[in-house]
Design a protein that fits this description.
It contains nine helices and 18 strands. By secondary structure, the chain is of the alpha+beta class. Among the domains are: 152 residues, TruD, insertion domain (Pseudouridine synthase); 82 residues, 2-Layer Sandwich (Pseudouridine synthase), CATH 3.30.2350.20. Strands 1, 2, 3, 4, 5, 6, 7, 8, 16, 17 and 18 form an eleven-stranded mixed β-sheet that branches. Strands 11-10-12 form a three-stranded antiparallel β-sheet. Helix 5 packs across helix 7. The protein is globular. The protein starts with a helix and ends in a 7-residue tail after the last strand.
């Protein structure tokens, strides 16, 4: 029987095994992600928002190149989030507005180019985006895109109507789970650049384990007494003492979702059987939970369910192309794993 750790890294499917086999990201261009900030640049201010296209490049590395062009320390470069290396990503960065500004549209390097530059009032903080738009090419294992599209059609309809479990993807845990292995090291002994990755991995494995239990029980998309319901696409939540017909209807429409714990000091605010389940699962990850608490992290919540918006599928002779939008902080791998087996992974 697999351990809780193994289940969290390879969690159960919501709708049974994937209906088809395909390969994703055989080349970087097969995976395009575009950030949706959800707001327009201010048009004035002491910073610049830079729209950057990067191909097969690491986000942190690109940030260092932009810092060099702006003549500022790398820590002063802002970006909303990390994007996979093996992909084409159109994302936003911020830099302090230099006195002598370069021609930003001419700034480029190996694997990146600046597409636009706009004055803005402040540094771009982590998480400051509304969502991400994905265009993913899945290459058919039998080289027949039409057949692959037909095999995926019923499952795509289910995902559009019901969403997918909001699992953290394998890139959160690092190559071969390396970020989790480092959780055995006291946080103060880790290099500063690794600390946030290790803490994120520690929280994420506990969340995945809780979600895996609720997927197995069939309750991941249903509100239960004691749940903390999260508003779709937002971080605010409220307690559910007992779900009534109105709340159940909102949940069925994917307006609200059950949530799971992002671990920190103390205990989750959930109640009843939900709280008992979360505490039981967390007890199987004492090192990770203690690490989050010792780092001063607070108990937070994350939606157990992920809405897949604008999902369309177009067949090509040898592949299909999927287009969809996900809320910030979620992973396209959560969608792909419910659709196809034999897809390839990449790490940020």
């Amino acid at each position: 029987m697999p351990s809780a750790h193994e289940v969290a890294l390879d969690p159960p499917y919501a709708y049974g095994p994937p209906p088809a086999a395909a390969v994703a990201r055989s080349v970087a261009a097969d995976f395009l992600v575009e950030e949706d900030l959800g707001f327009a640049p201010a048009g004035n201010g002491a910073h610049l928002l830079l729209k950057v296209r990067k191909t097969d490049a690491n986000t942190a590395w690109v940030a260092r190149q932009l810092a060099r062009a702006a003549g500022c320390p790398p820590r002063e470069v802002g970006y909303a989030g990390l994007k996979d290396r093996r992909a084409v990503a159109v994302q936003w960065f911020s830099v302090p507005r230099p006195r002598s500004s370069p021609d930003w549209l001419a700034v480029r390097g190996e694997g990146f180019e600046v597409l636009a530059a706009h004055p803005h009032t402040r540094k771009l903080p982590r998480g400051a985006l509304a969502g991400n738009l994905f265009t993913v090419r899945l290459r058919a294992a039998d080289d027949d895109g039409t057949r692959l599209g037909a095999a995926l059609a019923p499952r795509l309809a289910v995902l559009a109507a019901r969403g997918v479990p909001n699992y953290f993807g394998p890139q959160r845990f690092g190559r071969s789970g390396g970020n989790l292995t480092r959780a055995e090291t006291p946080i103060a002994a880790l290099p500063a650049a690794q600390r946030s990755l290790v803490l994120s991995a520690a929280r994420s494995v506990v969340f995945n384990a809780v979600l895996a239990e609720r997927v197995t029980a069939g309750s991941w998309e249903q509100l239960q007494a004691g749940d903390l319901a999260v508003l779709d696409g937002r971080g605010s939540f409220f307690a559910v003492a007992a779900p009534d017909e109105a709340l159940l209807a909102r949940c069925a429409r994917l307006e609200i979702h059950p949530s799971g714990p992002m671990w920190g000091a103390g205990q989750p605010e959930s109640g009843a059987a939900v709280h008992a389940l979360e505490m039981r699962v967390a007890a199987q990850f004492p090192t990770q939970c203690a690490l989050c608490a010792s780092a001063g992290m607070a108990q937070e919540r994350r939606s157990l369910r992920l809405r897949v918006s604008g999902l369309v599928c177009e067949a090509e002779p040898h592949a299909v192309v999927l287009r969809f939008r996900l809320a910030r902080g979620s992973f396209a791998t959560a969608v792909l794993r419910e659709l196809v087996s034999q897809w390839s992974e990449s790490s940020t």
